[in-house]
Write a structure and sequence with these properties.
It is built from 10 helices and 9 strands. It is of the alpha+beta class. 36% of the residues are buried. About 7% of the residues have low confidence.
Length: 273
């Protein structure tokens, strides 16, 4: 594997390679955190995405953390190939060799085994994806969000209702009786954070409504009021059924306790230190 390169170095290096290449994003001291396959200047797109988008993924959060510390991503070119198939095979092999963080096998923020390549799904396939609420989306980033939503907040255990059929949606206020913080409530918080792309931290603002695959949902009245009552959230914008929820320090600590910091980091909704 090649030496570490900065942005200028990798731009120069990429001009002297076969069209399809496998690259590694590294921390300043060389620890790898992402493996990708690219053409042209694809390797540089991740830093651009971290700066110009609000998308939350483990990979982009690592890059943003480095930027906040005044550090930059280091790059390695692992290999290059004339044929894309060979590059995809090498990408898969290198991810397996270094290991994915979400599988607890290594430091990589990759959330697939790699080697997906390009695809052009049929209209029938696209429709099946649209019909599946928590299923595959066409956008790879959306696919990852949907998988984490399924893993962390199964719809049957989280009181989130479709807006179109939830006629009883009403405002949020403190109950007369206070119920303690519950995992179901933590699940509702993670659900809106995932869907709305909000990084979980004390004081963050979370919409009560969330949209997945074009369908709008709302946190159910009861669990919302319970969270207000037990101090997990505070209501900021009080527009009825469109409230903005402020996550308290205690609420944040409980969510992290329920799901674990490592899992939330992998899901992209908790920024690593």
């Amino acid at each position: 594997m090649s030496d570490l390169l900065d942005v200028i170095g990798i731009r120069a290096a990429l001009q002297n390679h076969h069209p399809h290449y496998v690259y590694v994003l590294c921390r300043p001291l060389g620890e790898p955190f992402y493996v990708g396959k690219g053409v042209n200047f694809r390797a540089l797109q991740h830093e651009a995405d971290a700066r110009t988008t609000k998308t939350l993924t483990h990979k982009l959060n690592v890059i943003r953390s480095l930027h906040r510390l005044g550090q930059t991503v280091a790059y390695r070119i692992d290999s290059s190939f004339a044929d894309e198939t060979d590059a995809l095979a090498r990408e898969r092999a290198l991810i397996a060799e270094i290991g994915r963080h979400d599988l607890r096998r290594g430091p990589l923020t990759n959330q697939t085994d790699g080697g997906e390549g390009t695809s052009n799904p049929s209209e029938e396939s696209r429709q099946r994806r649209r019909d599946s609420l928590w299923g595959d989306a066409d956008d790879p980033e959306r696919q990852i969000v949907n998988r984490w939503f399924q893993k962390l907040t199964p719809v049957k255990s989280v009181p989130i209702k479709p807006v179109a059929t939830f006629a009883r949606a009403a405002g949020l206020w403190k109950n007369d009786d206070t119920i303690g913080m519950k995992p179901r409530q933590a699940g509702a918080i993670v659900a809106t954070a995932l869907a709305n792309g909000v990084a979980l931290e004390p004081g963050c603002l979370l919409p009560r409504r969330l949209k997945i695959e074009g369908i709008e949902y709302i946190i159910e009245n009861g669990v919302g009021r319970d969270m207000v009552s037990n101090g997990m959230i505070e209501v900021q914008d009080t527009t009825v059924t469109r409230e903005t929820l402020r996550l308290t320090g205690a609420g944040h600590a409980f969510v992290v306790k329920v799901f674990g910091a490592t899992t939330l980091i992998d899901a992209g909704v908790l920024v690593p230190d």
